[in-house]
Amino acid sequence: MNLTQKSHDEVKRLLPCVNYAVDATVGGGRDALFVASILADNGKVFCFDVQENAIERSKKLFADNNRLQCAEFFLCGHESMANVIPQYLHGKINCFFFNLGWLPNSDKTISTKTATTIRAIQSALELADKSGSVLSILCYKAHEGGMEEFKSVEKFLLDNNFDIARYTDKNNELSPELFVVKIGM
Predict the structure, then answer these.
(1) In this structure, are residues 136 and 96 in contact, taking their beta carbons and an 8 Å threshold?
(2) What is the CA radius of gyration of the chain?
(3) Given CA atoms 38, 44, 48, 54 in this order, what sign does their dihedral have?
(4) Collapsing DSSP states into helix, strand and coil, what is residue 185?
C-alpha cells in the first residue's frame, strides 16, 4: 500500500476543497503540491522544513507546476508554525501533512525528532479549524529514533481520544504507519 497516496486519497475524500493547509515537513513538496491542487480560490499552503535544499526543491516543484503563488515557504522547524502563520488564520487551517523521518536522498542524520514533532502536532491543533480539519501523520519507524517518535505520536493521539484512521502493513512491525486524524467531522 502506498501510504502517501492513501493519505492524499483520504484528505480528498474528507476535504474536497481546502482553504488553508500546512505541510509541516515539506521535503520534496509532493504533499504540498497535492493539497495545492484542491485549494479554494485564494487558498494557501504553508510549507515548513529545516533543510534549505528541501525548501528549494519544493519551490522549484511549485514553480514547474505554476503553483508558486499559492504557497509560502519557511526555513524553520514545524514546531514554529503557530509563530509564523499569521494570527488571523489561527483556527482556520483545514489540512496538515506530517511526513516524519528524513528527506529522501539527503543527509539521514537530519530527521524529525520526537519532542519537536509533538510540539508541532500541538501547534497544528491550535491552528486547526475545529469545524472540520484533517491531520495526516505518516510515521517511519525503521530509522534511528523513528520507533520512539512513532510511539510518542501514537500515545499522544490515543491519549487525546481523537477520531483516527490508521493504515500500515500489519505483517511488518517496521512498516510506516499513517494516522489520519479528523477534527470536527
Answers:
(1) yes
(2) 15
(3) positive
(4) coil
